[in-house]
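User: Show me a protein chain along with its predicted structure.
Assistant: Here is one chain, sequence first, then structure tokens.
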Amino acid sequence: MAAVTILTAVLTACSSEEDDIKNNEDICVSFRLLNEKGEETSTFKSGENLFFDLEITNNSDTTMVFSSERLNDMVVQLGISENGADMFFPLSSEDFFCVYDKEGRKIGVPYTGIYCSGGCCKVIESHSAYDARCNWKATMDGLWHHGNVTYPLCKVDSMDDLPIGEYYVSFSIKYRNKVNDPNSKFKTVTYNYPFTII
């Protein structure tokens, strides 16, 4: 059974020495919320747009692949990676970047779907980074990619403004300790990021 790591508030999995998933040499993952000025914050004004940003850094000397577990066979069959994906995002659109109120009631997610724009995976070249991004409210500059939205997320609908109050973003992803290593086990990391609307 895969180990589970829970990261709260300081949402990075590449700098702590507490365990190997946080001190991962190959893959660094960090999550942050940005305001309309592109500044990282946990406090937003009422009516302000929120931008969700998950940065994935490949520190290894080989390419890494992220996909979903259900699409992983396709990654192998297409010859993208003989060992399959190194990171799994959920194929379901129910819980990735999910926003909850302080009582734990689910408010919603900022996107319309995952992998709906086609393809089965994303390749990140060695020693480079990729940002999986999505904004809470659509900015109407494209049918499938409204605003600052990147693969594997897609957005058609805009979310309503969040009422004044306390919230948190919660989601889980799985990834290997070592890129492209069939003997490297997957671990699940859960992120919980509190924020406030004033």
